[in-house]
Amino acid sequence: MWFERIVAEGLSQNTYLVGSGGKAAVIDPRRDCTPCLDYADRHDAVITHIFETHRNEDYVSGALELAHRCNAKIYHGPKMDFAYGNTVREGDRFTLGTLELSVLETPGHTEESITLVLTDSEVSGEPYMVFSGDTLFFGDIARTDFFGPARKAEMAEKIYDSITKKILPLGDGVILCPAHGAGSACGSEIADHPFSTLGYERRTNPFLLIKKDAFVEQRTTESPYLPPYFRQMETVNKTGPVLLNDLPRPQPIPVATVASMIASGCQIVDIRFPTAFAAGHIPGSLSLWRDGIGSFAGWFLDYERPIVLVDDFTCTIDTVLRHFERMGYDTTAGWLAGGFPAWFRAARPVATTGACTVQDLKERLTREKPFLLDVRDRKNREHVGYIPGSQHVYVGELPQHLQEIPQDRPVVIYCDSGYKGSLATSVLSMHRFPDVTNVLGGMQAWVQAGYPVER
Amino acid sequence: MWFERIVAEGLSQNTYLVGSGGKAAVIDPRRDCTPCLDYADRHDAVITHIFETHRNEDYVSGALELAHRCNAKIYHGPKMDFAYGNTVREGDRFTLGTLELSVLETPGHTEESITLVLTDSEVSGEPYMVFSGDTLFFGDIARTDFFGPARKAEMAEKIYDSITKKILPLGDGVILCPAHGAGSACGSEIADHPFSTLGYERRTNPFLLIKKDAFVEQRTTESPYLPPYFRQMETVNKTGPVLLNDLPRPQPIPVATVASMIASGCQIVDIRFPTAFAAGHIPGSLSLWRDGIGSFAGWFLDYERPIVLVDDFTCTIDTVLRHFERMGYDTTAGWLAGGFPAWFRAARPVATTGACTVQDLKERLTREKPFLLDVRDRKNREHVGYIPGSQHVYVGELPQHLQEIPQDRPVVIYCDSGYKGSLATSVLSMHRFPDVTNVLGGMQAWVQAGYPVER
Amino acid sequence: MWFERIVAEGLSQNTYLVGSGGKAAVIDPRRDCTPCLDYADRHDAVITHIFETHRNEDYVSGALELAHRCNAKIYHGPKMDFAYGNTVREGDRFTLGTLELSVLETPGHTEESITLVLTDSEVSGEPYMVFSGDTLFFGDIARTDFFGPARKAEMAEKIYDSITKKILPLGDGVILCPAHGAGSACGSEIADHPFSTLGYERRTNPFLLIKKDAFVEQRTTESPYLPPYFRQMETVNKTGPVLLNDLPRPQPIPVATVASMIASGCQIVDIRFPTAFAAGHIPGSLSLWRDGIGSFAGWFLDYERPIVLVDDFTCTIDTVLRHFERMGYDTTAGWLAGGFPAWFRAARPVATTGACTVQDLKERLTREKPFLLDVRDRKNREHVGYIPGSQHVYVGELPQHLQEIPQDRPVVIYCDSGYKGSLATSVLSMHRFPDVTNVLGGMQAWVQAGYPVER
Amino acid sequence: MWFERIVAEGLSQNTYLVGSGGKAAVIDPRRDCTPCLDYADRHDAVITHIFETHRNEDYVSGALELAHRCNAKIYHGPKMDFAYGNTVREGDRFTLGTLELSVLETPGHTEESITLVLTDSEVSGEPYMVFSGDTLFFGDIARTDFFGPARKAEMAEKIYDSITKKILPLGDGVILCPAHGAGSACGSEIADHPFSTLGYERRTNPFLLIKKDAFVEQRTTESPYLPPYFRQMETVNKTGPVLLNDLPRPQPIPVATVASMIASGCQIVDIRFPTAFAAGHIPGSLSLWRDGIGSFAGWFLDYERPIVLVDDFTCTIDTVLRHFERMGYDTTAGWLAGGFPAWFRAARPVATTGACTVQDLKERLTREKPFLLDVRDRKNREHVGYIPGSQHVYVGELPQHLQEIPQDRPVVIYCDSGYKGSLATSVLSMHRFPDVTNVLGGMQAWVQAGYPVER
Description:
Metallo-beta-lactamase, Chain A, homotetramer, globular
C-alpha cells in the first residue's frame, strides 16, 4: 500500500491519500488539490474515492474540484443535506486493492461526522489506521460548540461516546490520522506531533484522562472563539464551491491602481512582519503576517470587497495566495507590484504605529498611564498570567469591543510575542485610534525580562 | 527591460516575453502557457499584449488560453479571418514602459505573417530585436509551399522581399528572435544556435547568399514534406482551440482497460527506445520515441480515436503529455499503468520486430535478398548517400506507399540512426507485414563501419 | 517537536531526524546527507547528535560525512571497536529541547545494536516513538545469521529477548521507526507499510505470533541470502568511509573512451529494462534495471574495477548515481555519453539475448528440451510453486553455480516478473553461454496464463 | 552547439558555457559552480576548458573550485603572475567539437584581459559570439582606474584601442557576451538588457559615440567609486581561493550565542527592508537589504570577524549565503535562529532609527534645521539634482567622512529610494550618532511629490 499526507500550513489541515492496486482514496481534500493528482500519478493510480469526514467549516473543501479532474465519487456522512456527493453509513465498506476503508458514524463535532477505519488484508484483518477527521486530534478533541449553548451538553456526550465507544476500542496500536495538526482553529490544544496512535492518546490526551461527567461539565461551561468566516465555509461546503479555474487570477497591481481601489473600498492586507508594519504602511491596512493568515484572516476580512496584499518582496506570494484560496477569499485581486517600497517611492501617504520593547513599556508604565490592552486568547492569559493593570479583549473580537477602549489616551497593546499585537494596532488604527503601540515580544519578553506577572 | 524565451522542446517552438514598467507582451504563446504567467509574476508585471506572428500550423496556439487567464488582448496580422483577437497593420506601434513594438507586414510564409521590431527608448531609438515568426530563422527561411504549386513562385518572391526589403535593412546589429529552432518541422535547415543577429544571417544564411531569381527557382522546384496534422492546426488556430481545463485529464490506465480500449480501436503509442520496442511491444502499437513526438506524431495519429501511451516507467510522462497537448491531441486518454512490464506480467500478447546491426545487415545482404528500405528524408539521402540496392520511401509517407513494399519478402529498414527505422517497422507491422527488421544505428553506423555508400 | 524521515529508495533505508528547541538528532544517516542539513536549516535547528543503531552492513554510513559538515557528535552502541564516534550504553539519555532519547541495548542482529526510545515532555513522560534499527521491522525482524551457523541459536534468542523483554513492553501505542522498509536486503518479509506501532506488530507480525522455541528453531534452520558486498560495508563502516568530496565526480564518457575502458577490464552496468537489453547491449554488460540496483549490484560488482553505466537517456542518472554512492561503489566513473544509441550509431559491437513470452515458452517446452532455469529466491519458489521441469539457482548465487548449467543446450530463464531473469541472462552471457533467453513476465505471467504449476 | 548563461544576481556577474561534441568550455565561472556541472551533465558533455577573461576583482573566481570537480584546465591571459592555471596569448585557438574559441589580448581594464571569439564551423567561419569580460559591456565599457591616477590616460587609450581595433572589426552581427550586466560595481552605466551585439553597441553605446581624445579626457578626470573589498578579491584570485568544502557550513545560531558573539566583536548584518530595520534591530547592526549585498557588503564588512545575518524569516537565506560566499566572506557563521522576532521575544535590547516620508521631511525642513545628508552616488546627484540645503557623502565612503557630520543635531539621510539611506543610518548609529532618520522613498519620492530640486 502507499500513503501520503499533504499538510496545508497555516490552517494546519491534513489531506490523506491511501492507495493499493492502482486505486486511491483521498480523505478531506483541500481546494488546491493538484498535489493529490500528482501523488496518484506517481503511484500509477487513479483516484476513485473522495471522503469528507464532515462538512468542514474552516476551509473550502476540494472534493468537487478534485472530482472534476479525476471523475472520483464523493462520499459524505449522513444527516446533512449536501448539494453534491453520496451518503455513507455505519458499516459501509470500500475496497481499494488490498485495502478496506470502513465507516464509523462518530457524531459530536457535527451530526454527520464520520471516522474511516483502514485495514490492509495483505498484512492482517486488524485495524491499521483511523482517519478521525475533527473527532479526535493529537492531545485534543473536537469542538462541540457549533450548535449553540442549548445543545452543548448533548454534543459533548456524543463526542465522548464516539471516541470511547467506537474509536478507542479499535486498539492501542492503531495509527491516528486526524484532519488537523497544531495551530488549527479547530482545536486550540492540539499537540505539535507528527503522528500519534490510539494508545498514546488514551494514555496522554488530557480530555481522555477525565471521566465523561467532568468532560461534559467542562464543555458546557467553556465558549471557544468562533471566527466569523466559519459560517461562510459551512454554506460553501454544503452547496459546493466555485471551481478555481473559473476565478480570475491574482496579479501584480501597480501603485496607482491600488490607490484607486482603496478609494473604492478594497481591503488591504499587509503581510509583512510587525516591525516593518510599525515603521510604515498604507493607511487603513490590516497587519496580518504570513503565518497568521490561516488563523486570523477569517476574523477580519469580508467576502465581498476585493483584497490586495502588500509585502516587501514577493518571494512567497504564491504560498500566501494559496492561504486565501483555501479560505474561499475569491475576491483576492493580487498584490502591490513592487511591494511596499514602490508605495513610498511614489510618495503615497504612509501611516505608522508605535512599537516598543518590554523595557520601554516598563519604564512608560511608571511615567504615564497608557491604556494597556492584552489581546491574547483567554487560555493564554489564564495560563501564563498578565501584566498588572492590563485589560483583556481577544484580538479576533476587537471590532465588537471598540467602545471599551479609550480614544483619548495612548493605547499600548501586547500579545504573547508581538504578531497579534501588531494586528490589533492595525485594527485600532483603521478605526482612527490616534495613538497605538505594539509591544515587541509581548508577554514572552515581559516574562523573560523578569518583570512582575499577575494571575 | 526584461526578456524571457520559453522553448517547447520537440516542436522546437519559441515563445518570447518582453516587459518593462510592469507590463509585458507575449509573442507566439504555446498552449501550456503557465510559464508565461509565472515569468510575468516574477517580474512584477501584467501581460497586456499577446502577438501571434502568424496563424501557426505546427502547434496549438496558446493565445486564447493565456488571454483567458490574464485578460490580455490578442493581436494577429491582417488578411486572415480569425474568429478571435484583433488585427494589426504595418506601422502599428505598441508601448510597454520604455519598450516599443512596431509591426512589419512580412508575407510569404502566410499572407498575414508579421514581424515585430523592438526598440528600448531607455537606451536608444535604434532597433534592438526582431521577432520574425517563421519568416527568418537561423540558417533557414520560411516554408512557402502552403498555398499549392500554383502560388509557389509568388510566395517565394514575397518572402524574399519581406526579408531583404523590410527586415535586413534594420541593421546587422539587431538580435533575431524567430518562432522556431533546430528540429522544427517548419524549417528543415534551421541551425542549432541559441541566438543570432541580422548581420550573422546576412553573412552566413545560405538562402540569403543567393540572388532572388535563384531563390525563387529553388523554391518552385522543391516539395517539402507536409505533416498531415498541419491542416488540423490551421483550422484550430483560426477558429480558436478548446481551453485545457475543459479537457479530461490523462491518467494511468490498467492493463485490462487498455486491452478493451484496443478492442474498440484506440491508438497505442509506444514511447520507448528502438531496442526496447523490438524485443517486445503491444501488437499494433506505433513506435514513437519521446524526442520524435513533435516531428512524427502528426504524420500517423488521428484526432478522433483515443490515444494510450506505453513507456517502461513514467519518469517523464508529464513532459510527454505536454507534447500531445501542444499538438492538439485532446483525445489522449493516459498511459499504461505500470508500463510495458505490467503488460507482459499479465501474460498479454506481445509482438516483436527484428533489430540488427550494420554488421548483421552487411552479412545478410550477401546471404539473402531482403527488401532494403530507406525511410530517411530526401535531403538526408541525397546529402549523405545511401546503401546500394535500397529503395526510398520517407517514413512519414509510408502509409501512402505500402503497395510498393513486398509482403512476401523480409523487409529491412534503415534511417539515419535507428529511431525513424523503428517507427517504420511499427507502421509496417501494423499493416501485417510479417518480417520487418530495423537497422540499429542506420546510415550513421553504416558509414562509421566503412561500408560502401552510393549516391 | 518536528520529525522527518528520509527514505533511500532501492536500499529501502530510513534516516530519521527529530528536533526541538533548535537542536536536532539524526538516526542512521545515509551517505548523501545533504537533505538532513536542509531539513535542519528549515526547522532553524543545528544537528547536535548522530546515532547509529548498529554498524550497518548494507550501505555506507553517512555519520562521518554529516559530522564533517555540522560538528555533531556520533554515537554507537557498545561491544564494537569503531575507529570513530562515542559509545553509548543502556539507560544513557540525551536531551534536545523537550525531547529525550534514551538507549536500550538490543543485541541479536549484531552485538552492538541499540534501540532509541523517544519521549516528549511537552506532552507526557510516556514513550512516544522507538527507533529500532534492524531489530524490529514492519512484519519482520532482524537477520541473525551474520555470525555463522555456530551462533545462530544464540543470536536468535538474543533478538527474541530484545524485542519481547525490552521493546514491546514500552506499550502498544508507541510508534515504530525501523531502519528499513519493504524491499531491503536486511529483511525479506518486511511489509510495504508507511508506519507501524508496537501494538500492530504485536498483533500481526508473524515472528511475534510464535513462541520463543519455535522462533529459534526456525532461525537455526534457515539460511538467508547474503550479498557479498555486505562484508565491504561492514569494514568501511567500522573504520570510517571516505568523504564524498574527496571522490572524483562521475561524468559522461564518450563511446571511444568506454570502448577502451572495456578493453582494460571495467564493469559495464546496463540500467535499461529487460526488453531493451534483450534486443541489443554492449557485450559483457550486466543487466541491472534501475530499481534493482540496491538489491543486486552488491552480488555482482567488485570494488576495484571502474564502473560505467549505460542507459537509453539520462533523465534519472543522478538518482542512479546515488544508489552506487550509497553502496560504496566509489569507482563509478560515469555513464555512456549519448546512451546506448550512441554506441550503435558508432557501429560498435552489439550483443543480444533471447526474450520470450510465457506463451512462447509453453509452446517451446513441448517442441524442444531447453534447460529451464528458475532464478527466483527460494521462498518465492516455495510459496508460488514453479514451472514443471525447472531447475533452481538463485540469481545472486549464479556465479558459484555455473557448472550446473549446460553450455550446449539452449537455456531459458525465468524469475517472478522478468527483471531478475534479464540479470541472469546477462550473467550467463558474460560467461559465454551461447543461447540464453529470458521469459518476459516470468512466473507471474505463467500463472496468469493458467499454465500448470508444480510445488 | 549549446550555450548557457548563469547569472549571479546582486553581483550581476555572468558565467558562460558553450559546448559541442561532448566537450564544454566555461568562461568566468563563479565560486558556487555546481550549476556549470549540472548543465554539462544535461548536455552529456565534459567541461574541458575554463577561461578567465581577467583576474576578477569583484568576486571570488570559481576556476579552481570547478577544475577540482571536473579536471578541466584553467586558462588566463598573459602579463599576470597567477599561482595556478595556464597562460594564453593572442591568436591561441581551442577546439570543442565544431566550435573554436580564439584569443584576443584586450588590455585596458587590466593588463592581462582577454576577449574570446567564438566561431562554429558547422555554420560558417564567421565570428559568432565574443566573450568580452569587462572590456565591453552593454552601454558601458570597462573601468580603467585600477592602476592609479598616473596610468589613467594610458589604460584609457589601451581599452579604446582594444575595443575599436580588435573587437568592433569582428562585425556588427556578432553577439556580445560580457562578464557583467546592469547593477555591477564594474560598470555603473551598464544597460539592463538581456543581450546585445557589436552593431547595437557601435550605434548606441555612449562611450563608442565619442572620439578617442574625448574618451581619454573623460577617463582621466573621473574617479569611480572603489569598494575596498576589491583588493581582497584581487589577492585571492591571483593566489587561488579556498575550496568551499573546506569551509565550515553556516548554520542557524540561537539568540544567546549571537549575543555572546556580539560581545566578542562579530559583525551583524540585518538583511531586512528599511521599514523593518527602522522600527527595531539589534544594536550595532548594519542595514543591508538582500539585493544590496553584492554592491555594498564590500564597503563595510571586513574579512576577519565572524558575520551573523538577521532576517525576519529564512525563506531565502540560501540565496543570501551565496552572495557572501561569492564575495569571499568565508567567516560567515550563520543566521539568527528564529529571525529578529526571536531576539525581541527574548527581551534582548532593541535599537531603532527614524524613518519618515518626504512629506514629513518637507514639513520638518521648515520647522527645524536638521543636517540633511545625501548619500547617493555622485552621478545620481548630478543627474537628478538634489534637495536644497543637503550635503553629500557617498554611502560607501561614509566611514571616512564621519567628522563632517554633526553629532549634536538631528541627521536626516536620503538616497534615491530609501535603501542606501537605511544603510547610512545604520552606519551612523554604529558610530553612536544619537538622532538619525532615513527618508522613505528618497529622491524618487521627493521628485514625485513635486518638491523643489536643485542642481
